[in-house]
Amino acid sequence: xxxxxxxxxxxxxxTVVDEVSFTVERGSITVIVGTSGSGKxxxxxxxxxxxxxxxxxxxxxxxxxxxxxxxxxxxRIGYVIQGxxxxxxxxxxxxxxxxxxxxxxxxxxxxxxxRELLTVFSLDPAVYAQALPHQLSGGQxxxxxxxxxxxxxxxxxLMDEPFGALDPIIRAKAxxxxxDIQGRFGxxxxxxxxxxxxxxxxxxxxxxxxGGKLLQYDRPAELLVHPADPFVxxxxxxxxxxxxxxxxxxxxxxALPGAAEGPAVAxxxxxxxxxxxxxxxxADAARVVDADGTVRGRLTVAAILAxxxx
Amino acid sequence: MPRAATxxxxxxxxxxxxxxxxxxxxxxxxxxxxxYGAPPIYDQGNLLSLALAQLGTVCLAAAASTLVAVGLGVLxxxxxxxxxxxxxxxxxxxxxxxxxxxxxxVAVPLVGFGEKPTLIAxxxxxxxxIFENTLVGLKTVPGAVLEAAxxxxxxxRQRLLAVELPLAMPxxxxxxxxxxxxxxxxxxxxxxxxxxxxxxxxIAGLLSSxxxxxxxxxxxxxxxxxxxxxGMAALERRLLRxxxxx
Lengths: 310, 246
Ligand SMILES: Nc1ncnc2c1ncn2[C@@H]1O[C@H](COP(=O)(O)OP(=O)(O)O)[C@@H](O)[C@H]1O
Ligand SMILES: [Mg+2]
Prior knowledge:
Radius of gyration of chain A: 21 Å
CATH architecture of chain B: Orthogonal Bundle
Oligomer: heterodimer
Strand order of the largest sheet of chain A: 6-7-8-3-9-10
Number of helices of chain B: 10
Helix content of chain B: over 70%
Structural class of chain A: alpha/beta
Number of helices of chain A: 15
Bound molecules: adenosine-5'-diphosphate, magnesium ion
Radius of gyration of chain B: 21 Å
Largest sheet of chain A: 6 strands, mixed
Strand content of chain A: 15-25%
Helix content of chain A: 40-55%
């Protein structure tokens, strides 16, 4: 669990991160979203102390991150940046082995871990372990970047616009892979993006930043339905298109097979209305029920949001 | 490497070895240049040992220049040393612009005649290319790579040794090579202050108007410079391959 408390960064007179507080649950994905220059990267880098805060503090599982030397802290925190930053003079295997080597793992363990990660990221070890980064495609380099960050089984993975350099199709695949891997390793992820769609797609919770301030920190559906600030609604403008899309689909069309506890909704209700109902009632799922009382199926928040994806 | 170039280099090497091992066998070639019955081949010392002495001086000076120039380059690219950049640059530039002959003149009263003043002159003269190349090499390491290195938890020292220096190495080695080659030629002036070297041969030629001597001193020096240049280039290629793979 990451607890960020009143974190502030000033450069001279300008405050680029202004008393930001939020909590990231263990095993969840938090996405920090905001326009360029809103302080997202600065906030992220204060978590692994690449930037030292002017005031405030960060707790990792309850322990102040300043209680150990910064470089030792960073070995426990995975870090992925846009443009991957792979070491061009080291092979893929050596790149992935970076942190385990720093931590002094046994060679056999390092080798096994490198093979495991290459396989998880669909890179055949026989082909890619000894390749140099420049011999890989952009998507492969990005995957090696994530594999390297995960190598030493970090408790937390920080990602700064990790998919920013990828073209849309590869980016969608990379996002799927991240969700898959996050599920598999149970890693706590904090990811920075300026892409609202990406935020909605990946985030269990989304932090909206503007001018160094955290405007809202909530579940994606909450941001849509109850934006705390006009800026948030503007940011979710894209997502609003998704909402319009949701107003065009009825609950009857989208219902999943099976029953559910939650509130009852009519098959003629739009998904937008159902989502609103779910967020309002705090339930995870709704029952789709005919006028005569027959259960037609169920709808979850995730299923509705998936229908809204462009 | 193209075949013709390889053949040419091996030819140059063979020629140099042959001439240094048995200079007298080249006498007929140089005879037309030696007038009034003067000896056609330098006979006041052993050419081989002069050449080796000069090479030794140059290598020693280059080693010292490398140590200092790379050290300075590393220092001024650290946040704590950035303030020394202008000063270092000025010092290194003076080393290059101050004529080596003048350095000799200044150094002799301080350290006496012989190899020492020559070493000082060559050391100062050789700093600039290594220093500038080290700077460029270190400054052109991509920002994302540096950020990743720190983000992974490398200490400043680990980052320097494992990432920055290896990536700057091609340029640093190129600087060392330039410095070496320039100084092989420059080293001949050491003979004016009694350092052992091929300058002796050239000076003897000038004093006795013997073009054959001047040519011999110049040719051996030139061949050494060319071969050193190529040898270093080959060494760099090998080294870089091993850095990439180790
Ligand atoms: N070292 C620095 N000195 C002064 N201002 C900085 C520095 N680093 C970042 N900033 C400023 O802080 C603001 C936030 O930067 P950043 O966190 O990189 O934004 P984002 O990642 O959201 O685009 C920007 O306006 C930037 O110009
Ligand atoms: Mg940024």
